[in-house]
Write a structure and sequence with these properties.
Elements: E1 11-12, E2 15-16, H1 19-48, H2 52-58, H3 63-67, E3 91-97, E4 99-121, E5 127-132, E6 139-140, E7 145-149, H4 152-180, H5 186-211, E8 214-216, E9 221-223, E10 233-234, E11 241-256, E12 268-273, E13 281-292, E14 298-306, E15 317-332, E16 338-340, E17 343-350, E18 353-364, E19 369-373, E20 380-384, E21 395-397, E22 409-412
Parallel strand pairs: 3-21, 4-22
Antiparallel strand pairs: 1-2, 3-20, 4-11, 4-15, 5-7, 5-10, 6-9, 7-8, 9-11, 11-14, 12-13, 12-15, 13-14, 15-19, 16-17, 17-18, 18-19
Helix pairs in contact: 4-5
């Protein structure tokens, strides 16, 4: 018996398929597969994209609504056996109240610290240093001697001035004696008094010149590294030492101009050294500039923090944090936020019907979202059953009555 061969794909009963026909069959298969993929993608988009039903309705396609299972005749979505007066079945939803929340804006800025007072000590005159009375890092009180200059010439001038003053005083005494015995005239007494006055002024000038050969601290504070040594010749332009009063630290920082009206002297803040992020110092705004910098559009602000343990230094960088009162906005449940082709929106409840209310998101938080929109306090927005809600649809709120409105809240802003 001869074996019968079954027809194989790509062959006619009487022979092989033509190459053109085989190519056309392969192209039709690819076209059908592409149609199936596109159809599946369209169904997935219509089922899962939040704004798909509205877009389809705008195009005149009610497929999404028709595909939604409808209750049997005489039944409502809640199973009460009653229909709404309009003949449409109310949509069962869960709502949440709208609260009013205030943003506590958080301002963060980087500033530079400086001592409360900082003085560079210079001598009054030229001379050679014969004594250095302080050490770098040591503390001084106001009036303490920092260094001394050679003062031999000033001492000689002081002695000469004392002799001249003593001589003038003696001449005045003699003139007064002669005047009492009528041997002198009032003019002689007046001349002697003038000579004595000039001699006393010269004496004071010599004493001041000698005193200024000793360089003293004008403020109390900590002495920095000394730029001079014993024996150096200095002038009135030479820096002998720098003294910082760092009992408290002044921080200079700049803030954007939009905060200009919100920052006031005395406002509390915290400052954290960049090099020591675990240390936080409490402080207050000590000064606010009277104008905004035109180039940077920022406002200069100064803050003062305590430094009782002397752990901070001038020149350190700080991160300044401030809490500023912000504006109030409606606060809604995060589940209420929906997205459409025109942006974000919520379904609000008005007279038992759904209304699409556009909103602008101001701030997202874990438990609520602050939005800008036409939402009044104690109004209700849909948070569950949103997929079945349509504009103007009658709503059946879970529980039969709307939930009670919550109290206004205060939220914090996590950004800078």
């Amino acid at each position: 018996m001869s074996a019968q061969l079954a027809p194989q794909p790509g062959f006619w009963l009487g022979g092989a398929l033509p190459a053109e026909l085989e190519f056309e069959l392969a192209a039709w298969k690819q076209f059908l597969i592409a149609l199936v993929i596109l159809g599946a993608a369209a169904v997935a988009w219509a089922a899962w994209f939040p704004g798909a039903p509205e877009i389809l309705a705008r195009w005149g396609i009610e497929w999404a609504n028709a595909a939604t299972p409808r209750p049997a005749a005489g039944e409502t979505a809640g199973g009460s056996g009653r229909r709404a007066g309009s003949g449409r079945v109310p949509t069962a939803v869960v709502t949440a109240p709208v609260a009013i929340a205030t943003i506590n804006q958080r301002l963060q800025a980087i500033g530079t610290g400086r001592a409360t007072a900082s003085v560079t000590v210079n001598p009054y005159d030229s001379g050679r240093i014969i004594e250095v009375a302080v050490t770098a890092g040591g503390s001084v009180e106001k009036g303490d001697v920092v260094a001394r200059l050679d003062a031999e010439a000033e001492k000689i001038a002081l002695d000469r001035a004392r002799l001249a003053a003593d001589d003038a005083r003696s001449k005045l005494d003699r003139a007064n004696s002669l005047r009492k015995s009528n041997a002198g005239t009032p003019v002689q007494v007046a001349d002697a008094e003038m000579v004595l006055g000039n001699a006393e002024l010269a004496l004071r000038d010599a004493e001041l010149a000698l005193e200024r050969r000793s360089i003293v601290a004008p403020i109390a504070g900590i002495v920095g590294i000394l730029p001079v040594e014993l024996g150096n010749y200095v002038t009135s332009q030479t820096a002998i030492a720098t003294i910082d009063d760092r009992s408290s630290i002044i921080i200079d920082f700049w803030v954007p101009e939009r905060y200009a009206s919100a920052i006031a002297v005395g406002a509390p803040l915290t400052a954290t050294p960049i090099a020591r992020p675990s240390d936080v110092f409490e402080g207050r705004v000590s000064a606010v500039d009277n104008r905004v910098d035109e180039a940077s559009r920022t406002l200069r602000v100064q803050a003062r923090i305590g430094n009782a343990d002397d752990s901070l230094r001038a020149g350190m960088s700080f991160q300044v944090d401030m809490r500023l009162p912000g504006d109030t906005y409606p606060s809604v449940d995060p589940l209420a936020i929906q997205w459409g082709t025109e942006g974000s929106f919520v379904w609000s409840v008005h007279d038992g019907k759904a209304r699409r209310t556009p909103v602008r998101i101001i701030q997202r938080n874990t438990e609520n979202v602050l939005v800008d929109g036409e939402l009044a306090e104690a109004a209700h927005v849909v948070i569950e059953g949103i997929h079945a809600v349509r504009e103007g649809a009658e709503l059946l709120i879970a529980g039969g009555t709307p939930a009670r409105a919550g109290a206004p809240g205060v939220v914090g802003q996590s950004g800078s």
